[in-house]
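== Sequence and structure of one protein ==
=== Format: two labelled lines per protein ===
==== Data for this protein ====
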Amino acid sequence: MKKVPIYDSFTEGVKDGIQTVFNIFPALLGLLVAVGALRASGALGILSNLISPLTTAIGFPSEAVPLTFMRLVSSAASRGLLLDLFAEYGPDSYLGRLVSVMMSSTETVFYTMSIYFMSVKITKTRSTLPGALITNLAGIIASVLVVNWLWG
């Protein structure tokens, strides 16, 4: 009805998309390098061992701790950890079910914030990070409760 040139609009959108990719590429590269270094260094295992008394006391498997922290940063890296847990414990184990539900109940907060906020040049995030972290924690708690309720 408005007689908008569809192909021209499409190509303008593609140009904008490519510019967005160039703008966010440094943040993506930094996240990927940081995730690789974190996994290769063994820091996740050390962190898991340090807080295992607390996680055991509240009924959260310490084997899921590295996945919990990695999920905040990278979906691909957390999926790799998920597959490692599947290989060791099996997808139908309590741990396998828990991390499956947890993966679908949480978000890659730092990745998402950096991509979205950088693409539209937002510098003041206000309460986005605390809200996202609280929501992720709620997703983790809900995962434990649901898995315990359904398969406990």
About this structure: The chain has a mean pLDDT of 87.
